[in-house]
Amino acid sequence: MSSYYKSKIESYDWLEYDEVCSTNDVIKQYYQEYKNIIISAKSQTNGRGRRGRTWSGQSGNLYFTYNVHIKDNCLSQLVCIIGLSMAKTIKSLAENLDVKIKWPNDVLVNGKKISGILLEKIEDSNWAVGIGVNILNSPDLENVVYQATSLKENGIILDRIEFLVYYLKQFMADFDNYNKNGFNQVQENWLKLAYNYQQNITIKNDKSVMSGVFSGLDENGYLLLEENNEIKRVVAGDLFNKI
Ligand code: BTN
After folding, report:
1. Is any ligand 1 atom within 6 A of the Cβ of residue 88?
2. How many A from CA of 49 to the centre of ligand 1?
3. What is the pTM of this model?
């Protein structure tokens, strides 16, 4: 692990490294020392994505992990809040940009992936939220349905740390609102930005491949999939246009 710089962003202690293996691993070394901490890095040598995938770690993009204290049974709600905060942050930089949240929490610009989010448990009720944002580079991805894009490719030039601060402010406002007022408003705003909402989709996960109409989110943040007048609640998986 390379040298680091220490400061604060909002109420979080913040450690910025030149290079780490994965910011999701580094945070696990610090959670006992700091109640709220952000680990960011200029590059990652072993970045990971959801469902065992890798996440490209070239320099120029933003890689960070922060922790959130929330009951484990509210995790799917947290997943929605994070995706929504990320989409709102990107939209606030250029109002006319086509920004969508692809369930559960990928953020797409013009149908291409700009940000990925990986939640991992640190300990009970304390979750690591690992986020990658393509600021300057759009990594070439092989065998994927959704190609990558970057802020730069969409005409937005912004320092990676400036983006981190904007995102964190947005997340803290949204999380605070959720703690005060509950999940309803998140659900409503999330659906306004949802990719493929009310369309035919396919969801693939470890256990099955399911198709139907994406008809909403339930009170837990699970996806509602309607097929032959039957509604299924889907907890995890990858969403595609109907295959
Ligand atoms: C995905 O879309 O599959 C999730 C990608 C998550 C990538 C971020 S980058 C910062 C943090 N450290 C990691 O190793 N992964 C997450």
Report:
1. no
2. 5
3. 0.96
